[in-house]
Amino acid sequence: MRAATDTQGAEELQLVCAEIWGGNRPVDTLVELPGVRGVLYSRPCGGGRGGDVHYVSVCGSGLLSRICIADVVGHGESVAAISHEMHATLRRCMNQPDQRRVLRDLNRRLVEIGFRAMTTAVAATYYPPAGSLSISYAGHPPGWLRSSASRGWAVLPPAEPRARDGRLANMALAVDAGVSFTRRDVRIAPGDRLLLVTDGVLEAPNPGQELFGAARVAALLDRAADAPIEVLASALRGELESFTQRGLEHDDVTFVLLEFVPGPRGPAVWHAVRNRVLRRRGNSQHFDRPGT
């Protein structure tokens, strides 16, 4: 994985082994995971109306990739608290193949500590040997998925919950400790793409207070469907800035744009064993900060 660039210092953004996590710091970087490459962009605003947190990591076997972004109402201590708890929960659950446990554990922890800030999140897990992507939402805007076969983008909504005796499902974090989360599973082929965003993208206003909205995101994706992933990410930033006519100061803006590429060759078991053996032989904790 490539290290992220933190233009304001390294207090919130760290690369530990194979992970990138942070919040309240500008990030614009390429990310490379097993079977995935793309762009992570996050720009905090200067006010106090929102805070975004992001996490990108690979499990101990070097095969399971996880991406999570969250939108917290508030800045400063609120974002620091959710960032800390999210990081601890995601690291603890990284080797778990089902991201529903990640959201469930994080939600219960936030309720336990009395966290009151409204927080939405999306967590996605990709397993290259099976070409399997699964995604779960906690009150978060749905992402978009592009099929390389049809060459079209489609909204990727949360899976419908099963009847659970009136239990809440897919709600924002810290609303209720008993909330359950569903999982949508998608078969992925090389060339497919995934876009995840926070509300700061959809709610970017122009001078007339019209919002950028999902329709404009979808139109851009269709127009630039075949553009290289870096070009498409740049086009999304450019259209947002052009639309607002005053930069992205309305709210925190975060998006992750990914393209799925051929994963590691050979049996998955071989890669898992090899990566774990190599990790034991090397340093168990390797810290690498941007610029080092």
Describe the structure.
Helix content is 26%, strand content 29%. It is built from 6 helices and 14 strands. It has a single domain (14-265), classed as PPM-type phosphatase domain (Phosphatase 2c, domain 1, 4-Layer Sandwich), CATH 3.60.40. Strand 5 and strand 6 form a beta hairpin. The chain is globular, with a radius of gyration of 18 Å. Residues 1-17 and 266-292 have low confidence and may be disordered.
Taken as a percent bin, the fraction of beta residues is 25-35%
Basic shape: globular
CATH class: Alpha Beta
CATH-defined architecture: 4-Layer Sandwich
| CATH fold title | Phosphatase 2c, domain 1
Q: Structural class of the helix and strand makeup?
A: alpha+beta
What does the main sheet amount to? 8 strands, antiparallel
Q: How much is the radius of gyration in Å? A: 18 Å
Average pLDDT over all residues: 78
CATH H-tier superfamily: PPM-type phosphatase domain
List segments where confidence is low: pLDDT < 50 over at least 5 consecutive residues.
Answer: 1-17, 266-292
SSE string: EEEEEEHHEEEEEEHHHEHE
Q: Kindly, what is the distance between the CA atoms of the first and last residues, rounded to a whole number of angstroms?
A: 15 Å
Within the largest sheet, what's the order of strands?
11-8-7-6-5-2-1-14
The total count of helices amounts to 6
Number of strands: 14
Helix fraction? 25-40%
Integer count of domains: 1
